[in-house]
Amino acid sequence: MRRYKARSISRFLAGASVLSTMAISSAAFAQDTAATLGNPGPSEIQERPQSDDSGTDGDIVVTGIRASLREAVEIKRNAQGVVDAISAEDIGKFPDTNLAESLQRITGVSIDRQNGEGSLVTVRGFGPEYNLVTLNGRQMPTSSLGDGASPPASRSFDFANLASEGISAVEVYKTGRAAVPSGGIGSSINILTPRPLDRPGMRGSIAARGVLDSSQNDGQDITPEVSGVFSTTFGSSDQFGILVSGVYQKRKASVNSGQVGFGNAFLGTENDWGTLGPEGPNVVNRPGPTDVYEIPQEASYSLTDIERERINGQVVLQFRPVETLTATVDFTYSRNRVEARNSSVGMWFNFGDTSTEWTDGPVAGPVFYTERFGPGKDLSYSGSLTANVTENKSWGGNLKWDAPGGVTMTLDAHHSTAESRPTNRFGTSTSVGSAIFGVASQTVDFRNDLPVLSYVMQPGIDALDPSRINATGNSFRNAYFRDEINQIRLNGRYDHDGAFLDSIDFGFSYIENHVRSAYGFLQNDTWGGVGTPADLPDDLFELVTLPDKFPDISGSDQGIIPAYYRFDFERMVDLLDDRFGICGGDGNCLATYDTDRRITEKTVSPFIQFNNEFELLAGPAHIIAGVRYDQTNVSSSALTPIPVGTAWVAAGEFNIIYAADSDFVTAKGSYQNWLPAIDFDMEPVQDVKLRASYSHTITRADYGSLQGGRTFNRQFGITGGGGSQGNPNLIPFLSKNIDVSAEWYYDLSSYISAGYFRKKVSNFINSQEIESSAFDLRNPADGPRFRAAQAALAGSALANDVPALRNYILRNFTNGVEVARDAAGNPILDQNGYYTGRILGLPEDDLVTFRVGTPSNSDQTATIDGFEFAIQHSFWDTGFGTILNYTIVNGDARFDNALDPNIGQFALAGLSDSANAVVYYDKNGLQARVAYNWRDEFYAGGNPNPLYVEAYSQIDASVSYEVRQGLTIFAEGINLTGESRRGHRRSDEFVTFAQPGFARYTGGVRFSF
After folding, report:
1. CATH topology of domain 9-773+854-1008
2. Is the pLDDT of residue 89 over 70?
3. pLDDT digits over 714-728, tens only?
């Protein structure tokens, strides 16, 4: 495992000194939380005990770290099954930007970061798609654009949309329960928001802070964050209540990355196009016959400047006309707008005239890889601009009645939507290219953490001469996603006074889930160049240096590309659209949707649960046993583009030509699941609790797998293309879960726990690839014209040169050939003097072979097990305390890097160990916390070519001081030591990305009343 060089302690101390001089707001609005998740009575978070910081009027006011941790102990101790929770006070005191950053402190929970912020949650090795997220017990819609370059399909909840200030608590249910909604194999995460009648009276808080993100490439702007909450009750007996909360956050940051893209993997014996040549002076230590290796396809340095604006808000109205009846109406809103401006310098490889050296097998990695070229090879300067927004709205109503005879009934309904879309005229994923032609050789050196890219230009050509930059190809992709959920729940509870049966929970839920995923693109395949350098004025470009953008990461001082040119994106697009019509000439580059997928899921879920309390071995014991039944009907319609032809547009690039119209195709499916669950706990010795649980849980397939219709990748290669089609008859993943744990609560705020979990998962989804032709599509590089070109160039150095063969066809054939010409009618030549244009597939050409992936449930199973250890200890009355936890995750579904890459594998993404260590101080108005979080390397997906994210850790810290009652200043720091992130394929040398890390600081003030 390659590791980054250690950061010096001086960097940590420098960060700490910044914290000590910054002011920041702290304590969250202390709020007792009401019941929500699958239970009309109290949730796992019960009425808070009186703290040492109680108000003079006797109200319960939690203000300190110790008080919130004491509450966390009570929650864990009194819960049925394995449940962890974190309160608003605890979340507010972490140096965290959102809920994901806070959840990672819980045992068994780890996160993925996007743009430097926590985004997606993994629980016990199961990634975000395996975890169900609810808001006040209601199933929430999810929306994200994925990579923006393909139709969105994920069910994963993006926690980056939520600020932590408006949340009162979060419950993480790690064991299944009949009363808990289905959908989470890893966990069910319930987000709780405050209710005014839970805390009668008038109270509130307001906070303002400034954020300095040191990752910014241009300047060190401080951005604002403002939050506030106001709650009051009124009436003769406080029967009316209103709560309003709001959060506004703005952030500027940058993400810089050195990245390498690899093609397919090969065995050492393979001799296909793209493989290494034989062992020789230029190919040192070539991979052996059974070794697996991969060749770099492209490499680049990328700088992305990000602006994020997040708005959250909630309004809650409550009315309690009598003590036994409570009505609640609420509206929750969140909006997360992100603009990302990217520029990069990159190089593509042609797999010829190579010098390289390799490590030993069985997985051979490149030490360095060099290619040499004749005139006309490009060095790419590209740019992109995306501005996307995700908006969530939820309207809900709840009626709770404490009926006579020990019966409680709760009726709850909500209408919620989540929508992601672009907010500019370019789309969700763009790429506008330019290049300087004249690269003589280019190299990637893999001996450092950062891939070291370098080049040598042809004599007389300066890569930093803006007058030589030529426009090339461009692409504008437009994605859209909307998820709408309508849900109604009727839950009941009967409290029984019998000796063994304590209570019965029962209920019914009906959910309609409507999903729309749409996608379209515009693409101009002029990657060999369009127009002349004179078309682009020099003042369009700005010189950017690179080594200073990758501090404290090995390789940045090893002769990397020193500088490159970035361009004004909007001005470049307008210029190219005006001169070449790349967007139709009107400046609007938003592509119309030619792929439009609609899915409707209707789920009916009744449940019943028996809660039993009794005495065992002279101590209290509990059994909760129940079953949930799910019946789901799926209807999937897809508007898919109709292929009508093919075109050879550049040396190694082939496109499918589509008709102007598309067709809707509809398919249907259904499935049923019985989900039993039983939890047992006992206290054989005072303050020692033993637990055991067994349950069945499910996770539904992603939306892309359920799509109707069949789609093909627009681009294909000389040997064929790919495609996919969905299957609405897929049944959910099913997990059979066992949990056991032992806990010793030796003080109000202290405990030790150890637990074991085991999950046997079945119904995994495999993609079966079937080779076939489709729509009579023909390969223009596999027919009479191509073979005639080969015969004409036989015996020359160009016999196997694809650009030369293509040039021959463009020059010597007219049928199905479209030569690009200038205004005078002269052929437009590329930098090699070759003709440019399109070669269309003809009926006499051979058929294109497509490998169409179709998802299906397999008979494969996987067993995931692991251990969770936690210690929480308060050092008497000193104010000091610590929290330590460690999670070990094992599984039998891991990727074998040395296996023949032509054989598909089955592996689970996200499996990794994780750990947390927190030291805190809380006394006399001064609070401080230092938190360390670590996650081991994990497989992030990819088959047959895996992607791994390497082990990562960071240190966060916070400090606050109550100047006077209600007025607090505080400071926070995130990633104080600036830890970097890195990913690779089969071995460390196959680096896919390396990103330097930077600290983020926050300072402000809070006033509460």
Report:
1. Maltoporin; Chain A (2.40.170)
2. no
3. 788 777 888 877 889
